[in-house]
Amino acid sequence: MPSLDAPLLRALRGERPETTPVWFMRQAGRSLPEYRELRVGTRMLDACLTPDLAAEITLQPVRRHGVDAGIFFSDIVVPLRVAGIDVEIVPGRGPVFADPVRTRADVDRITAIDPAAVVAAAEPVREAVRAVVAELDTTGTPLIGFAGAPFTLAAYLVEGGPSKEHLRARAMMHADPEAWHALAGWLAQVSRGFLRTQIEAGAAAVQLFDSWAGSLAPADFRAFVAPHSAVAVDGLEVPVIHFGVGTGPVLADMRLDGRAAAVGVDWRVPLDEAAAIVGEGTTLQGNIDPALLTAPWEVLESHVRDVVERGRSARAHIVNLGHGVPPETDPTVLTRIVELVHSL
Ligand code: CP3
């Protein structure tokens, strides 16, 4: 069991531990030479479903940076691969689906897959999480599990691959709301199953990634998206962090009516302003601008100090980036940020 006194878990409960917890989205991955070495010859989704490999990759950044949490090495499309859907992650591009889900018949084909069968087939995930937690428990460091939110998953599934404005998924909401709700409802069950699998194997918190929620009009987010994300995380046994990029206009809604213990904020909204929006009941996570990771240290340091200072307006604060670590980041800079945050 991770210690309930771990700074990350205390901050999620709304307490202010002596050291502010810090971890980084995409802390595992291409910024680390030891990751690039391990990944040679193995495709991304195969790596995710090879327990030893996924466990080792998860642990690499925890050992190197001394961050306050591990984030399970996997991908938001892993449960869809486990469900038997033909998806590949194309390097430099992202998830690509052989058969995009565009019509009502496509939706029926997908939703015929039983979410419970997906959970049952996720054995490699359970095994990897158990291995990670066994090692992290020796230092009391919590593991964060995660899943993609229904909208962000649909943004790939409906388009068939990465897109800038996720037009096809957003169009489906209005052109065929019934098909949309059927698809998003199914994705909510699959994401929920993926989260519960990680929790049962030992994850101490989870993050729901709705990375592309910022592309939605607030009214659409409320009507077509938030209710499904709420189902994905409702009543889980561990605290939930809810993250999206460009979500300033829907930051209060990102709380999912209190289901989220913490809301992740990107670099566009200063944390003191975000705190005023989410109120007393919600912890904030963020929001170092990833663009500043390549700036001179003095510039980055003063930015990190400003983020921590503004974070004091929130009930509690978990330091992170506003989005993932860019692959070209010098990992020694990340270690330095951890040391700085812990010293403040
Ligand atoms: O360290 C961590 O944060 C844990 C692992 C993690 C990955 N993907 C590993 C990964 C997590 C939490 C994700 C989530 C994910 N995947 C999201 C939501 C988070 C976000 O960044 O907004 C999204 C949108 C995806 C889909 C996806 N997977 C994309 C867009 C890409 C990039 C493709 C590329 O090559 O640029 C991936 C691949 C991916 N997922 C990599 C990693 C480490 C790179 C794969 C490689 O090493 O080749």
UniProtKB/TrEMBL annotation:
Keywords tagged on the record: Cytoplasm, Decarboxylase, Lyase, Porphyrin biosynthesis
Matching NCBIfam families: hemE
Family: Belongs to the uroporphyrinogen decarboxylase family.
Pfam families noted in UniProt: URO-D (PF01208)
Pathway: Porphyrin-containing compound metabolism; protoporphyrin-IX biosynthesis; coproporphyrinogen-III from 5-aminolevulinate: step 4/4
Primary location group: cytoplasm
Subcellular location: Cytoplasm
Function comment: Catalyzes the decarboxylation of four acetate groups of uroporphyrinogen-III to yield coproporphyrinogen-III.
Native source species: Microbacterium oryzae
Site for Transition state stabilizer, residues: 75
GO CC term, one of those recorded: cytosol
InterPro entries, A to Z: UROD/MetE-like_sf (IPR038071), Uroporphyrinogen_deCO2ase_HemE (IPR006361), Uroporphyrinogen_deCOase (IPR000257)
Catalytic activity: uroporphyrinogen III + 4 H(+) = coproporphyrinogen III + 4 CO2
Residues annotated as domain Uroporphyrinogen decarboxylase (URO-D): 21-30, 144-160
Subunit structure and binding partners: Homodimer.
Binding-site residues for substrate, renumbered to this chain: 26-30, 75, 156, 211, 323
GO biological process, any: protoporphyrinogen IX biosynthetic process
Enzyme nomenclature, EC number: 4.1.1.37
PANTHER family, A to Z: METHYLTETRAHYDROFOLATE:HOMOCYSTEINE METHYLTRANSFERASE RELATED (PTHR21091), UROPORPHYRINOGEN DECARBOXYLASE (PTHR21091:SF169)
Top-level enzyme category: lyase
UniProt lineage: Bacteria, Bacillati, Actinomycetota, Actinomycetes, Micrococcales
Protein name as catalogued: Uroporphyrinogen decarboxylase
GO molecular function, one term: uroporphyrinogen decarboxylase activity
